[in-house]
Model the fold of this input.
Amino acid sequence: TIQDATRREFNAVMNASLGGIVTNLEAYSRNLDEGRRIVQERIAAIVQRTFQGESIYVQEYGSYATRLLTPFSDLDLSIQGCLMLDREQAVEMLQVVCDNLKLFSFVKSAVSILTALVPVVKIEADASVEFEEGDVSATPQTIKVDIIVDLMDNYNPISTALRTTDYIKYCISTYPTFYKNMLFLKFALTCNSLTNTYTGGLNAYGLCVLYVAYLECFNAEKSNDEFECLLGFLKFLTTQFNAEVQAVYFGTGFR
Done:
């Protein structure tokens, strides 16, 4: 029908617009890739020297690993290989890392937040500042980094940070509309200060889980129409999902 044809044309225009936004976000992230790589390599070297353990290493997780990067994304790094650590020992490790990072001129600031639910060291670094004989970026760039010590939980030998990252990678490879819509929604929510869970916002992982619940429950898993799925998800989130009485279950949608 004419109405259906008009809807398809409108969706095509909106999908092109959505694709343009995603392309711009990807281009911005690529401009920071060299700086992020250099800073990650430097931090990894400092961590290994600090603890002198062959099993201890630094691994990226979160948005940097999944490439769901916005201009506001930090470089998320996890210190791995710390077997049989409790929270107190993890806090001590992070404080030592924080103190050591402050010794190097490429680290502009380093703050440890050790009372958080997940203790973290937050740093700002500039890869254009020289560090020993390593690579240096051509232009000054402030790279924001979050560093955690990843503890093994009681249910799975794979760390929580890496497990959630692997799940999002699985979603990107499984659902055709996932990557573009999640990148757009992350950017939109962050621009409007709606990602802080302490003030009632929705963090990136929660957003991903809800989006998958929508796809599964409304048989949109195989759809290639990003805009149609985006509209459907927003309707689901604002009029059909009630966080007070419903919960999302992996593999079974929401109840």
